[in-house]
């Protein structure tokens, strides 16, 4: 997916990469951003389906299920985007139907059926969405987030657009909305230690290495050429094609992979941000944030919204670029997208 470092966030198994130019075995002095054409193409191809979904949601949001008058389209999307949506309606008659005087757009019978199926799927996913929202709040230093931030990342989390009215009130044992510092915030009511397990730890447990001591295996082995190591504090690495690290780089990476660090679910205020363990923990926090999204990616603006709540590094972009084997950055949309390569 996409690596976790996109100013666009990428999906779990996407394989975007930041490449280094090789200089004959020596570690390159300058980092050069190399694109992965296949991954960037994914971002280009998703633009049209996203517009179709946006227009579908707009049509469905009309009161009393009435059609959307084309004359009102500009009020909802603006003058410039109106014409892009008009072209979209014309090119997709299997999804949108135009009729009446004045002309209005509605969904075709097939599109309505698919929308109903989607609603059923979302309903079946509600327990997972609630769990992920609880975990998201547990990652924050005060177990709370501004509702504005939750709304910003809601689509990535899979939350319905009206989650404040249809989801939050159903679970008073987990959530509460309270006014704090002039804004509405979502607070966690119940801390569950069984949820304080990261996706990385879950993967390691499945591989049987989660209880392994960091330095438990002292056998002399060759340095890993792909940066991957067995151990409870290691991240899954996926170097971009063409990146050829030298021995010194791999030895440094091995020390970093074996470095112990606190759980992302512990309060960040307990740790000194200058401590290497705390800096590695920050990578784990970003990794877990992306893992809670549906496609394992966020835009840079969405990730920056957690800067104060999760005490993320001040130079967030540099942190993501530095760990190109874990995250990927792409600029194929208006905002950078940050994506996770692998859990």
UniProtKB/TrEMBL annotation:
Record-annotated PORR domain positions: 34-334
GO molecular function, one term: RNA binding
A Pfam family this chain is assigned to: PORR
Protein name stated in the entry: Protein ROOT PRIMORDIUM DEFECTIVE 1-like isoform X1
């Amino acid at each position: 997916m996409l690596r976790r470092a996109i100013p666009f966030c990428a999906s779990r198994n996407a394989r975007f990469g930041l490449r280094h130019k090789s200089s004959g075995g020596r570690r390159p002095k300058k980092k050069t951003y190399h694109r992965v054409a296949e991954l960037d193409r994914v971002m280009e191809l998703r633009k049209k389906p996203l517009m179709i979904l946006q227009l579908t949601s707009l049509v469905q949001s009309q009161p009393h299920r009435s059609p959307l008058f084309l004359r009102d389209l500009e009020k909802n999307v603006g003058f410039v985007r109106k014409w892009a949506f008009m072209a979209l309606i014309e090119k997709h008659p299997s999804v949108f139907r135009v009729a009446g005087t004045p002309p209005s757009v509605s969904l075709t019978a097939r599109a309505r059926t698919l929308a109903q199926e989607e609603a059923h799927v979302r309903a079946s996913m509600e327990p997972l969405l609630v769990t992920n929202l609880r975990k998201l709040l547990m990652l924050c230093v005060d177990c709370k987030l501004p509702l504005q931030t939750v709304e910003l990342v809601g689509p990535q989390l899979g939350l319905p657009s009206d989650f404040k009215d249809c989801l939050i009130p159903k679970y008073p044992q987990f959530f509460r909305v309270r006014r704090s510092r002039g804004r509405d915030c979502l607070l966690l009511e119940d801390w569950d230690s069984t949820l304080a397990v990261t996706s990385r730890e879950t993967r390691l447990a499945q591989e049987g290495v989660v209880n392994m001591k960091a330095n438990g295996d002292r056998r002399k082995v060759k340095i890993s050429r792909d940066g991957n190591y067995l151990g409870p504090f290691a991240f899954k690495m996926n170097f971009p094609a063409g990146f050829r690290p030298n021995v010194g780089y791999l030895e440094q990476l091995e020390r970093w992979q074996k470095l112990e660090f606190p759980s992302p679910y512990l309060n960040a205020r307990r740790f000194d941000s200058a401590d290497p363990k705390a800096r590695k923990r920050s990578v784990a926090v970003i990794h877990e944030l992306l893992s809670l999204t549906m496609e394992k990616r966020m835009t840079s603006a969405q990730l920056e919204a957690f800067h104060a709540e999760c005490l993320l590094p001040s130079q967030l972009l540099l942190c993501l670029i530095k760990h190109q084997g874990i995250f990927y950055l792409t600029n194929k949309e208006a905002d950078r997208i940050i994506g996770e390569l692998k859990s």
